[in-house]
């Protein structure tokens, strides 16, 4: 048998039928659902008189619209509330394996909730009407975002009409310096290959530096595969993967567990498997990353400068830099460490897990936020993350530093709830997108790791956390 | 789904790379539980001078005269000409819904983000990839000539300029068939329900934990 990549194995084991042009029906094991991209899909099912093909594949939560404070007051925005209540009633009508509604202790960002519940397992196909579904690839699962028509298609048929992507290997060799996180690795990769570098590919992340990342670091990395243009990111299964999954509520138990582990141990690329593209990075060269523009590829490290559009010869790129600097209110050649911030956001499906909060708390401990920083939001990824953080006393560390400790949700990553930047405000954010208006109209986003965000909150400007 | 066969459409050139789905339809409009009515808020932050929220009377809002979609010469455009990596970012299908609701039937670019590209086909919107040089030429011609229109023929897989120059484009047979005939993909898939059930039987034997 020819050597296969991990992606080849996951793909071929889920093909139900294949047409002559390579279009396949791909079987879907797990369907994660949230309130924003599902109402029209449920509506479509109703109009056609259809039912979900396999209710036990559906795991749902409300996350995008939910407030992160004053939960006793409910959801004040009537349109947000209607969307969340529509999910409540749709799940009640159609069913699910599990549902974590607003205020439930298991509620949280769908990409935090799935893994922590064991709803995401190695070898699965995982879809969700959300581009950051790539997160789940950290478990050696084939996971990617889909549109609402596809949400309806998966509900009705348990399959997706799909075409195979090409294989890309991104190998990060060597060891990361102390304090360098999955977020810095992700941004460094995007800086190297660009936001369209992975378009048309499934990216497998490999190499010593990736193997040394924790499961949470791998989730952060795969989460941002989509920011490199790849719908799915993958990391091979190893003992860390299996240890993470063991004992979680929806993980297999007993005999099924042993059978599953035997299969999961085959979920890696074979020696000599063919990749259509290979990109390598030297881990030792990766420094704390900070984005300066309005696309995640507009990134440099903490020792870098805002670029000068005059140095760019390509007219389209030059125009993009000029537009980005005007939007961001930045001058060419400004050192990154001289950029002051107004707001800091620690949260999102990229960086709101317990290790992220521990890293931020380690920086904040015994310190106070800078006077020029108006607000520091710390938003845990789920109710379970929040409870764990509080059990460790992290909430007190944050509050003593002048940070706000909030309820779980997507929050200021995309500002669908009340948490948003005002026009012109500059934010150090642990989220995944620095697009124009993403965190609020006119808001200016700089993407960083949790430790770098906490350090910016304390210093009032970007600073190298390794010297902190 | 609306079928797509041929189109002779006015071209609007949007000369920016990496146009993301947050720009195509900002997040506040995703709170809707409907799949129509997004057209007036297409490119909302670029198109209007004030901040848009759901429920506003968009006809009373002040348009940004510098945004290309607002130029009188592009009123009624059905072909959007774009730069590389169009539709990057979030998976929101509200982006193709907004483009289609506005009146676009075709988007031409040198490259598209994968999820957006896929979502277009589900909504009778045809995304066409042409080589960067061809797109560059179309930008120059459409900017230079008022009333510049393109002929798009899906069956023949061609884009033809007013001077008669034709560019061929690729599309999978499956997508072409669905689009030409306006087919309901779920109905097509359910015609293969026995094969899906057979797959599940195999799964039950080999990986029972997945069906638990």
UniProtKB/TrEMBL annotation, chain A:
Record's subunit section: Heterodimer of LeuC and LeuD.
Enzymatic reactions: (2R,3S)-3-isopropylmalate = (2S)-2-isopropylmalate
NCBIfam families tied to this protein: leuC, PRK05478.1, PRK12466.1
Protein name: 3-isopropylmalate dehydratase large subunit
PANTHER family found in the cross-reference section: 3-ISOPROPYLMALATE DEHYDRATASE, HOMOACONITASE, MITOCHONDRIAL-RELATED
Pfam families: Aconitase
Gene that produces this protein: leuC
GO function term, MF aspect, one: 3-isopropylmalate dehydratase activity
Entry binding sites for [4Fe-4S] cluster: 349, 410, 413
Enzyme class of the recorded protein, top EC level: lyase
Cofactor: [4Fe-4S] cluster
Residue ranges of every copy of the Aconitase/3-isopropylmalate dehydratase large subunit alpha/beta/alpha domain listed in the record: 8-460
From TrEMBL, chain B:
Record key words, sorted: Amino-acid biosynthesis, Branched-chain amino acid biosynthesis, Leucine biosynthesis, Lyase
All copies of domain Aconitase A/isopropylmalate dehydratase small subunit swivel, residue ranges: 1-132
Gene3D superfamilies: Aconitase, domain 4
GO MF annotations in UniProt: 3-isopropylmalate dehydratase activity
Pathway(s): Amino-acid biosynthesis; L-leucine biosynthesis; L-leucine from 3-methyl-2-oxobutanoate: step 2/4
Family matches, as Pfam families: Aconitase_C (PF00694)
Entries under SUPFAM superfamilies matching the protein: LeuD/IlvD-like (SSF52016)
Top EC class, one word: lyase
TM region(s), chain numbering: none
CC per GO annotation: 3-isopropylmalate dehydratase complex
Family designation: Belongs to the LeuD family. LeuD type 1 subfamily.
Oligomeric and partner information: Heterodimer of LeuC and LeuD.
Functional note: Catalyzes the isomerization between 2-isopropylmalate and 3-isopropylmalate, via the formation of 2-isopropylmaleate.
Protein name: 3-isopropylmalate dehydratase small subunit
């Amino acid at each position: 048998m020819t050597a296969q990549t991990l992606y080849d194995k996951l793909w071929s084991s889920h093909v139900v039928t294949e047409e002559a042009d390579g279009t396949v029906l791909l079987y879907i094991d797990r369907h994660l659902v949230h309130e924003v991209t599902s109402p029209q899909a449920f509506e479509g099912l109703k109009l056609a008189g259809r039912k979900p093909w396999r209710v036990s594949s559906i795991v749902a939560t409300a996350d995008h619209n939910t407030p992160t404070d004053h939960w006793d007051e409910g959801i004040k925005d009537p349109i947000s509330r209607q969307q969340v209540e529509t999910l409540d009633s749709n799940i009640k009508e159609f069913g699910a394996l599990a549902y974590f509604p607003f205020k439930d202790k298991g509620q949280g960002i769908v990409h935090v909730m799935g893994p922590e519940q064991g709803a995401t397992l190695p070898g699965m196909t995982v879809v969700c009407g959300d581009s950051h579904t790539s997160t789940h690839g950290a478990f050696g699962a084939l996971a990617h975002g889909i549109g609402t028509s596809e949400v309806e298609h998966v509900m009705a048929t348990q399959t997706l009409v799909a075409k195979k992507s090409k294989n890309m290997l991104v190998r990060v060799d060597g060891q990361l310096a102390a304090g360098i996180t999955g977020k810095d690795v992700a941004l460094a990769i995007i800086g190297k290959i660009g936001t369209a570098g992975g378009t048309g590919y499934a990216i497998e992340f490999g190499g010593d530096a990736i193997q040394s990342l924790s499961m949470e670091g791998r989730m952060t990395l795969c989460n941002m595969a989509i920011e490199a243009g790849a719908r799915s990111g993958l990391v091979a299964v190893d003992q860390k993967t299996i240890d993470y999954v063991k004992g979680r509520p929806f993980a297999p138990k007993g005999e099924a567990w042993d059978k599953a582990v035997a299969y999961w141990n085959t979920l890696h690329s074979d020696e000599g498997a063919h990749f259509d593209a290979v990109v390598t990075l030297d881990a030792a060269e990766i420094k704390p990353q900070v984005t300066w523009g309005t696309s995640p590829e507009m990134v440099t490290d903490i020792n870098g400068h805002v670029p000068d559009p005059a140095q760019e010869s390509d007219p389209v790129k030059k125009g993009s830099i000029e537009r980005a600097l005007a939007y961001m209110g930045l001058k060419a050649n400004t050192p990154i460490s001289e950029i002051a911030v107004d707001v800091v956001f620690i949260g999102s499906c990229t960086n709101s897990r317990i290790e992220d909060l521990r890293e931020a708390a380690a920086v904040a401990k015994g310190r106070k936020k800078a006077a020029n920083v108006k607000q520091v939001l710390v938003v845990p990824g789920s109710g379970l993350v929040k409870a764990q953080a509080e059990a460790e006393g992290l909430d007190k560390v944050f509050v003593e530093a002048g940070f706000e400790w909030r309820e779980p949700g997507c929050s200021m990553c995309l500002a669908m709830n009340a948490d948003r930047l005002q026009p012109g405000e500059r934010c150090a954010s642990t989220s995944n997108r620095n697009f124009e208006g993403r965190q609020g109209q006119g808001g200016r986003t700089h993407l960083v790791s949790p430790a770098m965000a906490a350090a910016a909150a304390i210093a009032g400007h970007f600073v190298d956390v390794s010297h902190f | 789904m609306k079928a797509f066969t041929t189109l002779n459409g006015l071209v609007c050139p949007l000369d920016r790379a990496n146009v993301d789905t947050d720009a195509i339809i900002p997040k506040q409009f995703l709170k809707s539980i409907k799949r129509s009515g997004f057209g007036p808020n297409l490119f909302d932050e670029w198109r209007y001078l004030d901040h848009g929220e759901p429920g506003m009377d968009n006809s009373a809002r002040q348009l940004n005269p510098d945004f290309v979609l607002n130029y009188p010469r592009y009123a009624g455009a059905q072909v959007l000409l774009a730069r590389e990596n169009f539709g990057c970012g979030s998976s929101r299908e509200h982006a193709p819904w907004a483009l289609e609701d506005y009146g676009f039937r075709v988007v031409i670019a040198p490259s598209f983000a994968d999820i957006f590209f896929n979502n277009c086909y589900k909504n009778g919107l045809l995304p066409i990839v042409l080589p960067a040089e061809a797109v560059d030429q179309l930008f120059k011609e459409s900017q230079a000539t008022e009333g510049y229109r393109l002929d798009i023929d899906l069956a023949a897989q061609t884009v033809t300029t007013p001077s008669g120059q034709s560019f061929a484009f690729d599309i999978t047979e499956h997508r072409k068939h669905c689009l030409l005939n306006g087919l309901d993909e779920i109905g097509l898939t359910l015609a293969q329900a026995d094969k899906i059930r057979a797959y599940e039987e195999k799964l039950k034997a080999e990986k029972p934990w997945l069906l638990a």
